[in-house]
Specification:
Blueprint lengths: L9 H30 L11 H40 L15 H6 L7 H6 L2
Helix pairs in contact: 1-2
Keywords: Metal-binding, Zinc, Zinc-finger
Protein name: TraR/DksA C4-type zinc finger protein
InterPro entries: Znf_DskA_TraR (IPR000962)
Amino acid sequence: MAEERQRYSDSDLKEFKELIQQKIEKAEKDLMLIRESFINDQNNGTDDTSPTFKAFEEGAETLSKEQNAILAGRQEKFVRDLKNALIRIENKTYGICRVTGKLIGKDRLRAVPHATLSIEAKNMQR
């Protein structure tokens, strides 16, 4: 007799789906803000300042743009991972560790709703 694969109930999946959709909405808003600040090149009129200060400001501006690009990349990955979690919910495979095949704890999924590894599997990676 084949053992049925353990999974979360439909009501649990519905709860996680709502949580993930809220997180996606917030993450997409955050991503939009990051992109806007990246695109928004505000010139604060540094033309009349001394060349030394201007060099510092230009360096800080470049660093800020690089940091925004990194943040945007991370946020895009987070949104993508959350959307992938929604697909797993639809497939009814959400919350199943991809290494051990066991259910990932609800507390972990509430904290990291796009998790694909249980704490046990995560610790085995170290």
